[in-house]
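Marked as duplicate of an earlier ticket. Keeping the data here for the record.
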Amino acid sequence: MKRKLLLIILDGVPLRNFRRLFGNLEGWVQSGEAQTWTVRAVLPSISASCYASIHTGVTPQVHGCTGNGNVFRLKEEDVFSAVRKSGGVTGAVAHSFWSEFFNRHPFDYVRDIEYDEPESETINHGRFHTMTGYGLINQMTPSDVDLFGTLTNLCARFGLDYGMLHTCTLDSMGHRFFHDCQEMDHACFVMDEMLAPFIPRWRAMGYEVIVTADHGQDERGHHGGKSDLQQLSAMYYFGDGVGPTAGSEIDQLQIAPTILSRMGARIPAGMKGHVFLK
């Protein structure tokens, strides 16, 4: 592969929370070590639909995932499969929806919770969680530092060329507490603090790093619709590529072809989004 890359998806972080509350990420932008842009999610701006679009580069109206209750094995080519076709090794640490979309459906709690499949055409090394029993009181989310550590372990053990991490913590907190509150401020602060030590470590391992969210959330902790609070989030990029002017708006469908372009993999014909990193 031309380059190695990690995509970190923090579920449900509106643009304003990234800009106000992620002091480490914004500090790297200020020091010139990272570039940042605004990202507009697809519609519906619901989690599963966005997951599918981020990796296939097509809209929900094309791939067919209309929401969290409609998860299935996608038929479109995706980032994982494109990297594999180019000879790369892939890994994912994420919610089980990702395994169902890009590996096997339905999700098997024993077979699919953790697997190492060197011959897989999509995800070679998977570590997944289901959040079964999720509710407002018990959110069933793993510690994010454990997830970051797990991804780093996979990179070191298996030499991942492409790794993807997804965490639902902030999305779950937003649904429970909404966004104008001390609890949400603190949750964002903790996420920023836990993520920060891993970014220089990943860079030292030879990875370009993208940190973003799948969608935002509005003042009532809702997303799925068309308002800017629900659709807009941020992206932070650590690498040698040159992107658009700081703060420019990127369409979520541009993420997949841009990742593949950076890695030197073939971009599937169905991915029509413009590559935004040169």
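See parent ticket for discussion. The beta strands are 4-10, 35-40, 90-95, 114-116, 125-129, 162-167, 207-212, 232-238, 249-251.
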